[in-house]
Amino acid sequence: MSAAAPLAASGLRKSYGEREVVCGLDLALRPGECFGLLGPNGAGKTTTLRLCLGLTDPDGGSIAVFGQPVPAQAREARQRIGVVPQFDNLDPDFTIRENLLIFGRYFDIPDATLRARIPDLLEFAGLASRADTRIQTLSGGMKRRLTLARALVNDPELVFLDEPTTGLDPQARHVIWDRLRNLLKQGKTLLLTTHFMEEAERLCGRVAIMDHGRIIAEGEPQTLIAQHVEPHVVEVYGEAAPDWAELRGRALAERCESTGETLFCYARDPAALVADLDDRDDLRYLHRRASLEDVFLKLTGRELRD
Ligand SMILES: Nc1ncnc2c1ncn2[C@@H]1O[C@H](COP(=O)(O)OP(=O)(O)OP(=O)(O)O)[C@@H](O)[C@H]1O
Ligand SMILES: [Mg+2]
């Protein structure tokens, strides 16, 4: 096995028409880590993954997957990558088993090897008893688990996961997290995009926050939290929150932000805020530790993206 980094991209650029959607991006993954690529809708995450897979041609920069240049040797590079695309593309006319078999054939895996892998993949997906069920009849969670299992058909060392848990219920999300931890224990390297900051905090050793095609912060989740936001957050709810912010909140917190009827007060010491709120019957509040979501919102803003 080569010692080259699982993925190294530098100065990556991509434009669609007049619009540059990936603007000089650098990425370097370490073997065995889960790296989170985070960003608002349209930040350029999926485009970045497609560039790294050689599915979209870059306008500039260089990409190497285990030392192999992409797109020049994308086909060879893809042999070592598993992919969970943002939108499921399972073949609805075939069964679960057939989907795994057909996908495996893209990798020229010998039929006997492929068939021998399928029971484990079905087990991994928790779908062993439904191998001959057609895709159409599966729930969203089952499809996502199957797509994840399908990504492992070529026994990849590196797995790209583009929002693997979007649209799943909390139970299904926990199952996927468990499977991803299993993959990390096996030594695989994961590149994960997600809009769930809790997911990134739980799974990722390092994350990059990207916006408008650029990485605007990168590091370990806890380090980013310590660098960018105060350690305590008091969320205040209620119609009276804006008035309370003007009268008390802004003086007692280091920083306040409001979204609709929720006021976010960021503080190094929350004691005075909490004491003040305890005397108010017309306001509800939640005191919690600062999270990666607070960093994300601070750096990318609270405006809606399309
Ligand atoms: N094939 C394409 N043709 C034209 N524009 C595209 C194409 N693919 C992506 N874009 C544009 O590039 C930008 C980045 O899209 P991308 O899908 O990479 O974002 P994303 O970060 O994955 O967003 P999301 O979180 O919504 O999945 C968007 O403005 C999108 O409209
Ligand atoms: Mg995307």
Quick tags:
four-stranded antiparallel sheet, binds adenosine-5'-triphosphate, globular, alpha/beta, Rossmann fold, 306 residues, binds magnesium ion, 2 domains
Short description:
The chain is 36% helix and 27% strand. It has eleven helices and 14 strands.
Notes on the protein architecture:
The protein is of the alpha/beta class. The protein has two domains: 219 residues, P-loop containing nucleotide triphosphate hydrolases (Rossmann fold), CATH 3.40.50.300; 60 residues. The protein has eleven helices and 14 strands. The strands form three sheets. A six-stranded mixed β-sheet has the order 6-7-8-3-9-10, with helices on both faces. Strands 2-1-4-5 form a four-stranded antiparallel β-sheet. Strand 4 and strand 5 form a beta hairpin. Helix 3 crosses helix 4. The protein is globular. The mean pLDDT is 95. The site of adenosine-5'-triphosphate has 11 residues, from helix 1.
